[in-house]
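Example 3.2
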Amino acid sequence: MSKFNVLICGSGIAGSVFAFWLLRAYPDADITIVERDPTLRLTGASVDIRSSGVDIIKWMGVEEEIRKQTTNESGVQFVDENGKAVATLEATGRSDVQSFTSEYEIFRGALAKIFIKPVVDRVTTIFDESVDHFTQHDCGVDVTFTKSKETKTYDLLVGADGLRSKIRGRMLDTKPEEHIYGGGVHAAYFTIKKDLLQGGTLGKWYNAPGGRGIFLRPDPDPAGCTRANFINVSTDAEIEKRQRFDTALREGNQSYMDLMEKTFPDAGWLASEVLQGMRESDDFYCSLFAQIRSPKIQDGRVVLLGDSGYATPGFGTSLAIIGGYVLAGELLNHPGDINAAVKRYEEIMLPFARSSQGAEGAMQYMNPQTWWGIRIRNAILGAVTGLRLDRLATTVMSVVGGGDKKAPMGDYQWPEQ
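Structure, written as C-alpha cells:
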C-alpha cells in the first residue's frame, strides 16, 4: 500500500503516536486529524508512562525531552488531618519497575505537545469539527462531518475521541455511555496558583470520611503552583449520592465546583485552601475516573484507539501509546489488507487492556468511607513502607526480571527514515 488515506478523530496522545508510526510505515500517507476543540488541547493533569510505553518513547526518540519536562515528583505521601505523614511510597528510580509515581510523570499537555510536534506539519488538522456519522463499503468508509455537512471517503477511520467516543457509539450502535464503568469515582482536576506543598516534591494524599479525598501534586512552575484533585468515591448502595455527582458532571464545571464547596468544607487538612484555589483556577475540569470496556475495538475500516476503546485510569496513557504503535505496526505488516490489520490489532490490544484494568474496587479500598476504614488503610500502608517491604519488592522484581507487564507486540520491520 503506497498511498493511505486515514482520518483520525481526536488530536490527543493516542492519535499523535499513531500518526507518527503510520508515517514511518507509509511516509506518503494522507492523514487528516479532526478535533472538536478550536485548538490543540495542551492542558491536563499529571500522566505517566509505563510498560511497553517506555520502549516506544525511546524508539520515537522523545524520551530525553519527556524526562526534561517531568513534574519532578519523588513519591506520594499519605497524611492525616494534621498533615502528619502516615506512609510514603517513594519513586523507584527505575523505568522497568515503577511505583505509584512513575519515572515519566508529566503533565498531559506537555506530553501531547511533544507527541504532536514531529507530525503536525505532515498531517492536515481540522479544528472545531467532529464526525457526525459514517458508512462503510468495500472501497472505504464515507464520513460526514457535523458542522460542514461535507462527506469524504477514507481508507480507515480511527476513533481516538476519548471516554465518551461518538465513534464507539456509532460503531457499536449504542450510546457512548453504555461501556463506561465509573465504579462510583468522580474526580476534579485543577491548578492552584500557590505552592501548598512549600517546595516539596512528594505528592500528598489525604482522606476524610464519606469517600472524600484530596490529592496535591508538585508543579515545577517557578511561579509556585500546585496540581490538585478532589476525589469522591460512592458505594453501590449510595445511589442518590452517585446520581448527584453524575448530574453535576453533566451540568458542567460551575455546577461541579458548587458541589465541591458543599462536599469538602468540613473535610479537614487543607480543604479550605484547596477550595479557594479551585475557585481561582483557570483550568478546572471534572470527569468520571472510569474504564471503557468495549466488547470490540474494530469493525472493518473503523477502529478504536486509546481511551475510546480501553480507557484505564493509571495506565491509560501507556495504553494509548502502545495502541498507536501496534495499530500502525499491524498496518505495516498487512499491506493492502486493512481488515486483517485491525483484527490483529484487536487480538493484541483488547486482552492486554482488559488484563491491565484490574480490580474495579481499587479506588474504594484506597478511599475508605469511615474514619475507622481510613485508619486501617493507613496502618497497613504504614507497616508496608515502615518495614520497607515496597522497596524489597522492587529489588526482588528487578533481580528476577519482573516488573511492569509488557504488551505482546508484533515484530515490526519499520522502514529506514
